Model the fold of this input.
Amino acid sequence: MKQKFLLVAFMGLLLAACSDDSIDQPIVWQDGEKEVVFNFPGIASGHVVPYTRGIASEEENALTSLDIYVFKGNDDSAILERIYHSKEGEDGGDNTFTMSQAGDVQSAKISVPMTEDNKTKVFFFVGNGRDIISLNTAKANVTTLGTFKDFSVNTLVSSTHIKTPLLMTEVTTVDDITTLTTAQTVTLTRRMARFDVRNVARDSNFEIEEILIFGARPSTRIFKNASAVDETPTISMKAINFKDFKDANTKDVPSVFYIYPTLNLGTDGESETELSLVGKVTGTDTQQVYPVKFSVPSEDKPDELTHLKIEANHRYIIDIQKSGIADLKATLQVEEWLDGTGITTPVEPGTIRVLDENGLVITDNKVAVVAAGKTLTLKVEATSRWIVDAVPIGIDWLTVSGVNATEVGTEFTVKVEENKTGKSRTHILYVRNAAEKSILQPVIIMQE
Done:
């Protein structure tokens, strides 16, 4: 039988009075095929896979193309039966359809082959995926479902960041297509995570200049039901010049970058992807680099780390709150693009701040001690366990005590012996997070 595809007829009828009732059309049989209508809620109103607070950009909501792949059967050996493409401009032809709209819902109507032994169908939906090489290799009556579901996106190179329009996909299985009587709702979800940056330099005391992305996943599977993850070797991405963004360091900056989901394949389940913020503390010319690792304290044991996995279709907000000479206080907010549900977790396993015995800030991290010597009590503000690096054997004039690495301590003692050398001497103590050694504050002990 000649394949045919039914275009949405009489668009004015569908759009009459902008009523949702016009979208909820009955399913009908015709000439050995069955019409199936799919509704995509929210696309028309700019809320496909919506954000809370309505901050998604038009570019992120755009659906420039939609392709539907139909398989006869639901196991890996099922064969691709037909491919349907949304119609663009005046382009027509077999197996094309026109998106119609009523209210904030867009819909697509297709006609699928129907026989008594052909009731189970699997529909793969791809938005904005026309340039994906693997999809363009799919052939009707040849490609199997097992092969198709493991297709990956085009592999990124270091200089190529993910850009809009964004890939959106979904998979729907219909066990018995004869039972369908009304339109089916399909919610497309994005296949990458979005990162925003919230930093007001006058409040945080830190001006971000660049964002570095290391160990990024350059590829991911197109569909959520893939049988295995894409383990294409990670890459480091070209630095992002944050100062080029509108409102950089003055207001919230949305959509700074997108990355594919992390796999967390490290020895201890840690993410392979890491971020660093490069910038300057207000009033200094020294460039600082702060690591942003996807590790957070566990809820029940705040001094133990839990590895955070970056998920597709989530929005992550790096919220810079306050910086100092050697620490950066921030939170990482996570919101799903799907329903806006949010949680807040620290962006780092903790912060460390070392103060003098009166609880005051140590200027320039320097503590001056007279030649006669002194015993210092230094206060520590930290959210998880910390340690002090061991004093080298050659430094016999300085002793550290009072450090308990099994709990979150609040202070430690430094004993400085009398200086009989006739020369000034200096040693730097490093107070570090017990789990994440890159989080530290140096304390410079200077004796006359």
